[in-house]
Structures are given as structure tokens and as C-alpha cells.
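Hey, resending since the last one bounced:
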Amino acid sequence: MIEAAETLAEDVGVSEACRSLGVPRRTYYRAQEKKDEPAARPTPPRALSDEEREHVRAVLNSDRFCDSSPRQVYAELLDEDGVYLCHWRTMYRVLEEHGEVRERRRQRPPQRRVKPELGATAPNQVWSWDITLLKGQGCFYYLYTIIDVFSRYVTGWMIANRESADLARKLITETCQRHGIGEDQLVLHSDRGSAMRSKAVGDLLVDLGVAKSYSRPGTPTDNPYSESQFKTMKYQATYPNRFESLAHARQWARAFFPWYNDDHHHSSLGLLTPATVHSGKVETARQQRQNVLDDAYKDHPDRFVAGRPTPPEAPEEVWINQPKSKANESSESDGLAVSGREPGAHAESRGSKVALDSDKRLAKLEHPLVPSDKARIFLPKLAPELCQSR
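The C-alpha cells again:
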């Protein structure tokens, strides 16, 4: 506003310009006054010299005190060494001058973790597993759960009173044997818990020919299917506030998991049960639903304003972190309806160098389980973490 008044004052005068713009003339004139630069603050005679300040800084950053606060350094020098350098507030000011009021130790640079991108077009291609706590009477029990990403079918579970790599190894072994998992067929995805990252589990996956994949640190959305299954379980009506004993927890789980696999109509599977999808009976179930809807449409067509009703479809592809290129391809493809919450996926991830044309794509959807000698599952930039049999 002062600048506008200065410009206008050249034409109409100061008084008229200030009156028109509502600027007090005293404010206008004060802005015209030349302000002297503030004088430099004199150094008080009691201040530390440059050599003393450098010595204080060297002591604070030494190996002995690099992980201590100035308060701790001040007290330790007085008590143990009988030395007084300066007040601890002066120590802070010395560090502030050099931008060192922070962690002064040499820090490991932040690591950029590669986002896992795993896809499946059929059961037993990608499994996810995790461990959750169940409240007991003054203790916790540990529930180990393995879930198939494509069908949401719980392929294996176990409840124990501790988290152990040996127990996880036993569960994974028995589950793979029960479902006939062959070499180079399966990717086992998990977070970075101690049992998941243990050498015992890693060696087991090498022996089984199963590739392993991990979530990024502090990123629970990288393991969404296990987390979602745990939420469904703990919000189930019969889930108790606390389990009376380990036997009680196992008894409850023996009833819950058959219900979840065989009776729970999963919203992300076109309201089909995980067992239906896992057993490959999707088309049979959808055809049965279509027959019922056709009869209802025939009896009351006026109640279906959008025309002939159709049952919801189960996804043909499921991803953990679908790449953008695959998402665009799926949205433009005919016959592939991809949900915004659970986008479709492909059995090969972004690391594959072979682009599938439309004919090969359709053939892959019809025959998703390729022979083990031709199976390839790639995780981008994670080659050192893959465990595959040679």
C-alpha cells in the first residue's frame, strides 16, 4: 500500500494519495525515512575466544561424547574430569553455529526399499503369511496364518504360546506338502518379523524351491491380504474378548477357519467363498447364480430397471502393489474388470522382460500353472533375497 501511495503521490500529491488509499500520512512519511543499519553487537569481554569455542566443539564431537547431550557432557566433565569448559547453554550455542544441534554420530543413509510387486492368476502362485496376537488371561497366544492371495483361502494355520522360527518352519513345510507345491511354483510373501527373516525359514524355502518376498519396513499395506484376514477374524461375532487358555484358542480357531474358507462370502471375490475360488468352481457357482437371477428376471422384469441382472464377477488377476503399466493395460483390456480397491494382477511382475501379446495373455489366463521347469517369478531388484532351488 505504501508503494501505491508513493506512485500516486507523484501525480496528485501526498495528502490526496494518502486520503484516497486510506494510508495515514505519518505512516507514509515514516516509510520515507532512511533507517540506519543496526550496529553490530559488541562481543562481551567474558565471551569465549575463538580457540575456546573450537575446543568446546571438539570435545562435544569427540568419540567419548558424540552420543551425549550437552547437559550430560557438562555434568560428566565436572564429576569425572574436574573440568569446566563453559555452561551447557553455551555448548548448545556453539553447536547451533555449526548446525549440529542434532544427532552428531555418523548415520547410515536412508535406504530406499523396492516396493514388492507380486501377481497371481490362479491359486497356489502367491501366498502371504503373518503372525498376530490373541489375548489370553494375562498372556498372549500367537496365531500363524498362511493365506492364498488369489483365492483368500487359508491354506494353513497354527496357534502357539510363542513366536518361533522352528514352528514357522514346521507350518510352512506341512502346508506346502498338503497342497502339493512344486519347485519354482510359489512366492511366499511376509513382513519383516523375526520369524519371517530367520535363517531357518530362509533355508527351508531354498529346499522347497519357494521364492520369498518381504514388505518394506513400516509398510503394512505391502501385506494387505493377511492384515485384512486378521481384521475379519477379530471382528467376527464369536471372537472372544480373551481366550481362557491355549486349548480354548485352538478350539475356537477350528470352528472359525472352516467357516472363513467354506461359508464366508468374500466381497472381493464376487461374494464367492474362498473355497469356491481355490477349488476352481467359480464358473459353476456363477452359472448357478445366473440361473436364479434369470428366473427372478423372468417373473418380475419391471423390478430390474437396468435390464437382465448378472452376478458379480470374481477377479481374474490379483496383485500386491500392481504396477501402473499393468493397471493401465488392465483398464483398457476387454473382459477384465478391475476393482479400484483390489486391482487385478498378472502371474509375472514388472521384472519380466517378455511382453505378452493378447493371444499369449488369454492362454496364460486359461492355463495359469505352467510347468515348473518353465516357471519364472521375478521380483525387481530383489535377486539377492530370492531363494530358489538350483
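Residues 334-390 have pLDDT under 50 and may be disordered.

Sorry for the duplicate.
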